[in-house]
Amino acid sequence: MSLAARPSNFGTRFHNFLYRQLHLNFVYKAFTTHDLGAAIGGIRALGIRGCAISMPFKEACIPYLDELDASATGISSVNTIVNTKGRLKAYNTDYTAVTELLRSNGIPTSAKFALRGSGGMAKAVACALRDLGFTDGVILARNEATGGPLAQQYGFGWKAELGSEKPALLINATPVGMAGAAEASQLSFSEDRVQEAEFIFDVVALPAETPFIRLATSLGKKTISGAAVSALQAVEQFVLYTGVRPDTTLVEKAAAFART
């Protein structure tokens, strides 16, 4: 199952496609909730094998869990819960996916970056940037109470707004551009800044092509989409839930099916 403020069909279609193809006795459902503690308790009480966690529950769910994997401990943010005989262990496969995408897309660690956001996904991205060796960057968050400590934790600067800086890598880890959000049609960075950047990374997975990604693509920038993050992290969740790692061809088919 999954818990999110705005449940999408991607995870449901992705996981259920693989369950059918691999003849596994699982079913995946997406939910939202207004009582997070009760929802997490239900995972334990009903013997649900696992649960994906999305905004805005990635940090709020932690007090209800029994154990954090190292991938979640360092970030204090969760996107996956695995239930083993009533014991709930949390992981963060977003971190794994972001790390792999930054590395595989050949973005030099010398590139100056600006990361907008200070929530759970921003933490995963900031940790990945630091662990890969990025040192020249800034966390953009209007709320200094969250943005400042995040920047300090990972050794980066903090600013409320980008101002005149011109980073080569722009990363959005906020709901700006997300389908159904109040800012669904907005850009997370100005068009001028996108024009001046080399690399664009938007963690928003729905829609697959956000206004930010659409603009960057039209300008010929190298882009990483939230859809790519979603697919990679979903594979790691699938392995945690089932103990089975599907081959690359099957994963590509599942991702294509999930996006239709």
Structural descriptors:
260 residues; Rossmann fold; 41% helix; six-stranded parallel beta sheet; 2 domains; alpha/beta
Architecture overview:
It is built from ten helices and twelve strands. The chain has 260 residues and is α/β, with parallel strands linked by helices. The protein has two domains: 2-92 and 230-259, 3-Layer(aba) Sandwich (Rossmann fold); 95-227, 3-Layer(aba) Sandwich (Rossmann fold). Strands 2-1-3-5-6-4 form a six-stranded mixed β-sheet. Strands 9-8-7-10-11-12 form a six-stranded parallel β-sheet, with helices on both faces. Helix 8 links the parallel strand 11 (199-202) and strand 12 (222-224). Helix 1 crosses helix 9, helix 1 (10-21) crosses helix 10 and helix 4 (93-104) crosses helix 5. The chain starts with a strand and ends with a helix.
Please, what is the oligomeric state? Answer: single chain
| Largest pleated sheet | 6 strands, mixed
Q: What is the terminal-to-terminal distance?
A: 20 Å
Secondary-structure element order, N to C: EHEHEEHEEHEHEHEEHEHEHH
Question: Which CATH-level-2 architecture of the largest domain?
Answer: 3-Layer(aba) Sandwich
Which bin fits the share of residues in helices? 40-55%
Form type: globular
Number of domains: 2
For this structure, the CATH topology of the largest domain is Rossmann fold
Summary?
The protein has about 260 residues and is α/β, with parallel strands linked by helices. It is built from ten helices and twelve strands.
Secondary structure layout plus pairing:
Elements: E1 2-3, H1 10-21, E2 30-31, H2 36-46, E3 50-53, E4 67-68, H3 70-73, E5 80-84, E6 87-91, H4 93-104, E7 113-116, H5 120-132, E8 137-140, H6 144-154, E9 157-159, E10 169-172, H7 191-196, E11 199-202, H8 211-218, E12 222-224, H9 226-242, H10 248-259
Parallel strand pairs: 1-2, 1-3, 4-6, 7-8, 7-10, 8-9, 10-11, 11-12
Antiparallel strand pairs: 3-5, 5-6
